[in-house]
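S.,

Sequence below, as promised.
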Amino acid sequence: MFWLYGGGLNGGTIFNTMSNGSYLAAHDVVYVSANYRLGKLGFLYGGNGSTAPGNVGLYDQVMALKWIRENIHSFGGDRDQITVFGESAGSRSISALIVSPETKGLFRRVIMESGANLHYKGRQQHTTDEALVESQTIAKALNCSEDYESNEMLDCLRKRDPKDFSKFQQQFTFPLEGTDFLPISIQQAFQEAKYNKDLDIMAGVNRNEGSALALGGFPQLHHNITDKDFDDMVIKTNTSYHGLELQQVRQFYLKEVNKNHSSDELRQAFYAFFGDIHVKCPTYLTAKNYAAKSSSKNGVYMYELTYESKFAKIMGCDEKTMGICHGSELEFVFGLPLWVDKIYPKTHTQLDVDFSLYVMKLWTDFAKYGKPDAQWPQIFDKSLINIKDLNPTNTSRVLDNPFAGDCDDFWITYYFNLC
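The prediction came back faster than expected:
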């Protein structure tokens, strides 16, 4: 099981005690992780064919996968049963690996936790022309040549202190399409059948993905907000996501808000909007389309986490105001309830411990067998959409599709041209 950490492709490390993999490894799997380059150091673009072809952070992931295939037998692993799993930007990376021509045959299964590189159908999130201009802007700021057609600009940038690039960080970095690593979008890859068709996929999201992510990018959410603030935040979101129609967003996400539009209701509405566009709908629609386009021999499973422990509040997610936040599944995936109470006493119950053991078994059984458990139906089964309710109070419950209204109805035409 090869782990890709999250962090917006701007931050993260394998040296995180919260995701060290030791408890997963106790379930008869080999756990592997690798650092990959991030931010401008990992995604600076100097043109196709240059020594900075963009997406070098993703090339790092591929290099790690090649190393695993060549060497994992020495650690008791099976090179033909590699599962890549990741959260947030790690999951977004996985969706890019699925459609990249650089990855054929490198892995057998994937687990995508809260993220996919699916975006507006009308244009890339970040075009290669925009990426080149951005590289030239950085070069100018660091007193380097802006001539990307020669090696002068890149040679100069490589001599700069890596810390100099931190001032150009953004909240999120996105994989760059139109490049050697990602020639086409996920939509085009599905349409033209140019993707890895031999995978089993498990994907999922947490019920309230937008809260923590939105609070990190929109400081006004920490205070009382108005109708105008809601509009301004949607407009700001459009600078990265493109193609948003403000009035349509308002009509859909404010339809349940009372006429006075209280600050709390507006905040929750924006959380829902941001979670849908950034995490929920890309993850769900990627898994759903993969299942629809692929052979029946490929198992595709989907979950929604609807539970969290007291520990989540310590980590900055207050369930009463933020719900089941982005990243809330990680403590259960990595077995934190089994040991973290030594540091944070009385934050986990026996239910949390049992749930974590259950989740780790789901994840590792999927990695070993391609199916998480006998009670979890595939996303398409008997003409129904099946979403597993990941909750310890009822481990056999399958939800009525929680993404039907938002993703299947409202957002589907944003992402795909429907025939």
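The domain at 2-212+282-406 is CATH 3.40.50.1820 (Rossmann fold).

Coffee later?
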